Amino acid sequence: MAIDFTPDVMVCGAGCAGIAAALQAARRGAKTLLVERAGFSGGIITTVGLPFFDGIARKHDKKIVHRGIGLEFLVKMGVCKASDDTVYAHNPVIRNIERFKILLDELITAEPNLRVLYHSFVADTVTKGNRVDEVLVANKGGIQRFRPKTVIDCTGDADVAARSGVPCETSPELMPLTLHFRIGHVQNNPELRQRCREVLVKAHEEGKLKNFYGPGVSFMFANDEVYLHAIRVKANPLDPEDLTRAEMQGRIDAWTMYELWKEKVPGFENSYYIQSGPYIGIRESRRILGQYILTEEDIKNEKKFPDAVATGNWYLDLHPNYATVGSANVKPGGLGGLDGYQPDHYDIPYRSLLPRKIDNLLVAGRCHSATRLAQSSSRVTVTAMAMGQAAGMAAALASEKQKNVQEMDGVKVREALDQIHAGPFAG
Ligand SMILES: Cc1cc2nc3c(=O)[nH]c(=O)nc-3n(C[C@H](O)[C@H](O)[C@H](O)COP(=O)(O)OP(=O)(O)OC[C@H]3O[C@@H](n4cnc5c(N)ncnc54)[C@H](O)[C@@H]3O)c2cc1C
Predict the structure, then answer these.
(1) Mean of the pLDDT values across residues 282-294?
(2) Is there a shared CATH topology between the 9-171+285-419 domain and the 181-276 domain?
(3) 66 SS3 class
(4) 13 Cβ inside 6 Å of ligand 1
(5) pLDDT (tens digit, 9 = 90+) per residue, 289-304?
(6) CA–CA separation, 340 and 372 (whole Å)
(7) Residue of minimum CA distance from atom 39 in ligand 1
């Protein structure tokens, strides 16, 4: 059953960047369609079960650097107030992922200009000249064809851009994939974390676990519930068969950890495995080659761009994969330790959301135009939301002015964001 709708703006992927893009485009008055492969919005936060809002505030003084939709989410989740200048941590958490799903549904349905299709996968595009002419979506209605004026690719993997012939980069070494999981009825005690780690180190030595992190045991959601991001699977998330293998590997590794801890670690005797996130999490895959490529030097020098439309502030956060595990400075459970540079805050220019070759496409979130190391910072949740909001604003403005997004002046996009107290941090 096809839906009869010709959007001004079509947002592909309702993750961190996509939900912000769709809300912003619709609030500005553009007829907007949001399409998401999962049955809910939220991207990494809900598809993996990750509660962290990194990128909202500076590390040293916790000053809020993104006052847009990312902050609105935190306020509506009861983490802080809209009038606050600071937040309790530079990576605050929301306490309930299910409530967040419902909040996003409420915000979507409150927007008369916004329609959403869940359980819908953007499978392909048809281009004409330098434009995306049609976007093909596979869902229970069959293959549906949409002809939006502007498309915003927020798939994380730059699926729309790649299908449309936009040049993209993929690093030969990719950060590992991680399945998050939770264990209930755990009795916390001072030795718990150390014992958990010792068990994993031994399991790794015995060949029961190829890789792991931390394990980063944290009592995030309740005082007897452990939340873990200990899984590390090397895989190519763009290869469907390898991604399938990674999901299976993540599941079995998580279960192995649970069983070992239940058997060997005091505090886990009466524990039970609650669940893993619905999807394994992908940190990096494609990055588009855009009109500007954000670099680690830009981040380190905190370079100012006149067309800055978003602010980043996370450190260069590259996780090691198998290729580096076992090398001199990386242990199986460790982080990369490659750089770790902590910026105060930095500009993300509009041009890094503009792909080469296609005129009516924007790309926001972890697949925007950046070097691998720069992306290891700009990929985090709130920074992705900030990019998405900027893309949504640019697409809506382009529709108002009957221009394509390549013709839009990033300075004007920034000014429009300023008018609603969003956009880059003014210092
Ligand atoms: C395991 C893990 C842990 C992380 N830890 C942190 C952390 O602690 N703090 C932090 O701030 N960041 C963290 N990150 C990074 C950060 O969460 C992501 O980089 C961020 O989610 C990027 O936002 P995005 O919108 O680009 O992608 P996502 O949030 O992943 O959204 C992409 C959306 O597109 C949908 N989609 C994909 N392809 C299609 C398609 N073809 N058709 C339709 N829909 C599609 C997906 O289902 C998803 O909803 C972590 C990442 C991972 C993987």
Answers:
(1) 98
(2) no
(3) coil
(4) yes
(5) 999 999 999 999 999 9
(6) 14
(7) 155
Amino acid, res. 423: G
For residues 170 and 236, give the distance between their C-alpha atoms in angstroms, rounded to a whole number: 10
Report the Cα–Cα distance between both ends of the chain, in Å, rounded: 50
* DSSP symbols for 24-61: HHHHTT--EEEE-SSSSS-TIIIII---B-TTSB-TTT
Q: Whose CA is nearest to atom 10 of ligand 1?
A: 380
* 335-367 pLDDT, tens digit each: 665 567 889 999 999 999 999 999 999 999 999
User: Mutation test of ligand 1: which of 136, 155, 316, 335 has the most ligand atoms closer than 8 Å to its C-beta?
Assistant: 155
Rounded Cα–Cα distance for residues 361 and 325 (Å): 38
Q: Does ligand 1 have an atom closer than 6 angstroms to the CB of 54?
A: yes
Q: List alpha helices for 215-304, DSSP H.
A: 240-264, 296-300
In 129-180, DSSP assigns E strands to 131-139, 142-146, 150-153, 168-170
For residue 249, report the phi and psi dihedrals to the nearest 5 degrees.
-65, -45
399's enclosing H/E stretch is helix 381-401
* Axis-axis angle for helices 97-109, 69-76 (nearest 10): 120
Domain positions in the chain: 9-171+285-419, 181-276
Q: In what order do the strands lie in the sheet with 9-12?
A: 114-117, 32-35, 9-12, 150-153, 361-363
DSSP H or E stretch at residue 274:
strand 272-276
Written as six digits, the tokens of 21 are: 């893009």
d(CA 324, CA 346): 29
Going by pLDDT thresholds of 50, 70 and 90, the confidence category of residue 1 is low
Q: What's the CATH number for 181-276?
A: 3.30.70
Q: For the structural domain made of 9-171+285-419, what CATH number should be given?
A: 3.50.50.60
Asked whether residue 322 carries a pLDDT value surpassing 80, the answer given is: no
Q: What are phi and psi of 205, to 5 degrees?
A: -60, -35
Q: Ligand 1: which residue has its CA nearest to atom 50?
A: 283
What is the pTM assigned to this prediction?
0.97
Residue closest via CA to ligand 1's atom 51 equals: 283
Distance 48 CA to ligand 1 centre (A): 8
Residue 352 is classified by DSSP as G
Instruction: Please report where in the chains the tokens 């819908």 appear, as a residue.
Output: 120
- For residue 200, the surrounding DSSP H or E stretch is helix 192-205
User: For residue range 34-58, what is the model confidence (pLDDT) as tens digits?
Assistant: 999 999 999 999 988 899 999 999 9
pLDDT value of residue 320? 80
319 pLDDT tier (thresholds 50, 70, 90): confident
